Amino acid sequence: MIDIDEVFKLFDRGVICVPVRSGSKYPDYEAMGLTFDKVVRGDRALSRLAFDSLAFCLSQHPPGREQLGRWFREHQGNVGIVAGFNGLVVLDLDNAYYYDRVVDQISRISKTFPVERTPHGYHLYLRCSRPHPCSSLYLGGRRIGHFSALGGFVTCSPSVLADGSSYSWMPGRSLLDCDPVEIECVNQVKLALMHPLRRLYRLARPHRRSR
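^ that's the sequence the OP posted. Answer follows.
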């Protein structure tokens, strides 16, 4: 459970928090005054649509402090962050194996930026001047995780999942301690949002003429 004062402090720093169900990674629609659960219950495709649509909408039309207060004043569950708002993007690394290589590239631009330990890997917080949708994340042709941007949420500290695993900020590296790194695109830190072979295929295939 996050303190509501932290929610407001993050909002003042350009970060939107959303209530997340206890033990889960999914938004708590009921806490937000929404009835999505009645529509999407039991349907993965509709659940995904609701998740992505809400995230995109909030990134373009953020809530005010009064609305955030209603969401979190009685909330006892987890917390998430809206990607895409003010260019915020999150490099969601699947495991710790590539962490040092990615951090080394980002550190060439800034030595301090928000970093969070997740149950299986890391979240690295940046701001990107170009709008991007969510995507897979690649390093040297290998998929290393997920790129959360427009249409995305990430669960964050101090959330705890049903299996007891949790999220925690690295010491001195929370979103209240330091600002996300400013980049133009992920290529700037030697990452890609598409597998190199797929990119070559797209470049090589003939362009279709519009009728």
